[in-house]
Amino acid sequence: MCEPDKPVVQLQGITKRFPGVLANDQVDFDLYPGEIHALLGENGAGKSTLMKILYGFYRADAGTIRVNGKLAHIRSPRDARLLGIGMVFQGFTLIPAMTVAENVALFMAELPPVLRRKDLHRSITQASERYGLALNPGALVWQLSIGEQQRVELLKLLLAGARVLIFDEPTKVLVPHEVAALFHVFQSLKADGYSLIFITHKLREALTCADRITVMRQGRVVGTVRPQEVREETLLQMMFGERLAEISAKEKRKPGDPILELQGVWTKPVGTAPGLQNINLTVHAGEIVGVAGVSGNGQRELGDAILGLIRIVRGKKIFRGEDATRWPPRRLIQSGVAFVPEDPLSMAVVPWFSVLENLALLDLRGFSRFGGLGLDWRRVREFLNLGFSKLGLETVPERVRAANLSGGNLQRFTLVRELSRPYHLVVGLYPTRGLDVRSANAVRQAFLAAREEGKGVLLISEDLNELFALCDRIVVMLKGQIVGEFRPEEADLTEVGRVMTGAGVVHAP
């Protein structure tokens, strides 16, 4: 056991290289017993890579790790767990068809020859009650919300004996009330002597829940501060080394002709996801229409129905005056629909292809040479650089596999690729979720620019402030239906929030 005034974990001189990128450059980091330490930085700053080295997911090229004062050789996650280190990743590792208890049992290193279900359930219930996790041991994982699944991941670590807990962007998938509940859990764990590392790019969350904040930029540590000693502006300066441009205010304008019309659209439910019910929605040229709602109320299904990924069983989808109800995704994309999905890794890229190779897939004929016998990689590279330059962002490493990009860099690449080709309508499903402040602002500016160019924009987001800042109209979805429509200049956040939760009355402009 480590003494209270000595680090439980020390990383010294950690260096890690991937093809084309130096992810960590001589990084020092420490964590004390009973401390919540936030690791803050923009997307691609090296935060997750550093913690994956501590957890044994990656091996460092140089540097040392000490745990409880002793030199540690962590070659795999199993080594880390034996040292009492656990990590909750952004992508959960649960088996949906199994119960909470069964998932926990699979993770525990030592189990008796005959596992008594009653004893396991008792342990889960006790830990759940102690730390406010509110889990039913017998519940099937596929029936749980995202927030509840995250609690199962944490419970696995606690019952496996982890005392150092790493959370990689844990609030990325949570709605506001779940974030508050998670931070309450953090404080309970801290009070019991657990040490927590909280990876984030969100300034207010770091300032709210952390005892110390270490800021990384371009693979290096810029500094470590205490929340009471700094303001948001200071952290922004540390993260980016420059002042951020403000989002330009949208000017009032008269929208043009309809780009997309959904007329009485219905779809079938899939699993626990609701089907769409009588959706009537129009997006005009030169207009940003926002879709608000608590996660899981049909927003993703709306995007999938527009793109043709799920079948419309009743109603019509009109795109630029043509009946597109039965059009396959390829035809919609070729006709000018740009799509930024919720999960780019599974829907927008080939994971084992490099960034450059994924971009080339956008237009193999256009990038080909020698009659299709080869590709003009210089043109592909120029196209990539120009796309990022238009958004005012640094280009992601072109030789890195898509699967090895950070979540934020992958999101940025997907957006750049989609907006770099001709389009009439862009559909964005949570396009700024998981992005740092600068990248999120760049995405918002890109949507405003699309609006000014006469494009139609459908923005699906859980960030009401974002929707109010950007949108000309906001519709609210609840249980697969549109239950309200607002104009931001005539409504307020509270009013929209009440309709989102089913507590308010429908308001039409």
Radius of gyration over all CA atoms, rounded: 24 Å
Look at the helices and sheets and give the structural class.
Answer: alpha/beta
In whole angstroms, the N-to-C terminal distance is: 62 Å
Write out the strand line-up for the largest beta sheet, numbering strands in chain order.
Answer: 6-7-8-3-9-10
Your description of this structure?
The chain is an alpha/beta fold and 509 residues long. It has 3 domains: 9-240, P-loop containing nucleotide triphosphate hydrolases (Rossmann fold); 257-336 and 425-431 and 458-509, Rossmann fold (3-Layer(aba) Sandwich), CATH 3.40.50; 342-421, no CATH class. Helices cover 34% and strands 24% of the residues. The protein has helices at residues 47-54, 77-82, 100-107, 117-131, 146-159, 176-191, 203-209, 232-240, 299-307, 329-334, 344-347, 355-360, 364-367, 377-391, 407-419, 437-452, 464-470, 493-500; strands spanning 9-18, 21-31, 36-41, 62-67, 70-72, 85-88, 164-168, 195-200, 212-217, 220-225, 258-266, 279-284, 287-292, 314-319, 322-323, 337-340, 368-369, 374-375, 425-429, 456-460, 473-478, 481-486. A hairpin with a 2-residue loop joins strand 4 (62-67) and strand 5. Helix 3 (100-107) packs parallel to helix 5 and helix 14 (377-391) crosses helix 15 (407-419). The model has no long low-confidence stretch (mean pLDDT 85).
